[in-house]
Amino acid sequence: MSRVKIVVTIGPGTAAPEALAQLADAGADAARLNGSHADLDWHAAAIAAIRAAAPGMPILFDVPGRKIRTGRLRREPSFRAGDRIVLTTAQALEAEDKVPVTSATLHQELAAGDTLLADDGQLRFTVESVVGQDVHCRAETAGRLGSAKGINVPGLVRQGELLTERDQQMLDFAKAQGADFVGISFVEGAAHVRAVREAIGRSGPRIISKIEHRQALDHLEEILEASDAILVDRGDLSVETGLRQVALLQKRILGSARRAGRPAIVATEMLHSMMESPVPTKAEVSDITNAVLDGASALMLSGETAVGRFPVEAVATMREIADAALAELQEALDQGHEPAASSVPQAMEDAIALICRRLPVTKIVAVTMGGYAARMVAARRPRQPILAVSSDPAAARSFQLLPGTRGIHVDVAFSRTSTDHIPRCLEALWRRGLLTDEDLILVTSVGYPKSGNRMNLIQTHHVADLRESLGWAAR
Fold this sequence. Notes:
Elements: E1 5-9, H1 17-26, E2 30-34, H2 40-53, E3 59-63, E4 68-69, E5 78-79, E6 84-88, E7 99-100, H3 106-109, E8 115-118, E9 123-131, E10 134-139, E11 143-144, E12 150-152, H4 165-176, E13 181-184, H5 190-200, E14 206-211, H6 214-218, H7 220-226, E15 229-233, H8 234-241, H9 243-260, E16 264-267, H10 282-294, E17 298-301, H11 303-306, H12 311-335, H13 344-358, E18 363-367, H14 372-378, E19 386-390, H15 393-398, E20 405-409, H16 421-431, E21 440-445, E22 457-462, H17 463-470
Parallel strand pairs: 1-2, 1-17, 2-3, 3-13, 6-7, 13-14, 14-15, 15-16, 16-17, 18-19, 18-21, 19-20
Antiparallel strand pairs: 4-12, 5-11, 6-10, 8-9, 8-12, 9-10, 21-22
Helix pairs in contact: 1-2, 1-12, 7-9, 8-9, 10-12
């Protein structure tokens, strides 16, 4: 199994079952669908194709949220520096001389002199005036403004509801389609995450908060606590904070995520040259390597696999680079020293890390309903593969995003008053061939769970001894 996961964005060229199977074979671990593009019927068909081609692959449905984008344009305007262009919040626009945007309130939030950046900062505009719902701008750079391109206003604090009617529609769609994760753009704080959690319910998809502007940085710790995972969107983040800061901020964010035990995905232009070329640049190799060394749980490909010419080659290349970086990281971890624990789960993490270094443990089994034990063990980057076992099939599938982890669903009732379910889970793994007589396994779980009582149990077993002691016999 992959120890650093690869998330691939599915687009027109990769939504067919054969292409999806090729991406999985090349090393893809999770599939992302960008709700800003195409309609929900297309996404429903893509989800069905993913489930058919790679049924164990978790699906991330990216909800645009409060991110401002251009609408679907009948004519994509080209311009030179100094040309004038008009953006409008009028949603029923038919005129071709204005560019509609997805925000209904942007005209109320801008004033003359404000700077607008589009397409990950490639295009720059200065607001000259606001007339009604129209924002009149002067282009500071030459280029072309396409459909569904992101628009940033550095430092702008958005007004209005945290979730729009469109957000709710897309969240309902993601839940109905069985998406494993929803990605939320421009998360501002824990209240934003809680609003999404309330909208989808406790049984809904898990939440990946996208860190892409200053407010998220200011509230990073609370966002980490409220979220199931985070995504470092370096495109919008670099626009908000400046290109010179983005690599440093990536290190800071990944360090915080690692301490919180939350998976962190790094995204944006990781293999951008492979949109058109079958080989990466040396800078891209360095970028992926450093993201792994910084502690990324997963790496994401966007246009490279959605619309690029070499999607399979991009996945295979990323896998080779990530695995090479992991070998270096593992050596450093093996020689390093961990900080002192301050809680029972942290002490258990230390003990697990020590046991896995001192004994010839071949596999770690985390018996976990919601994933806490698997998440905390995976955050320590053990050399051994982690088998994360749950009686909840959706939870088990979501564990695939954790580094070095394989999520496994078992039809076993988990008990709160005994630990009898643990050997039953181990037997289920043995019967599936996931554990063999030769394995020395470390098992972690929680016994007699109550509030605040998490991951308080460690066992080590030779599987052959377990089989003999518990009377497992082939059926």
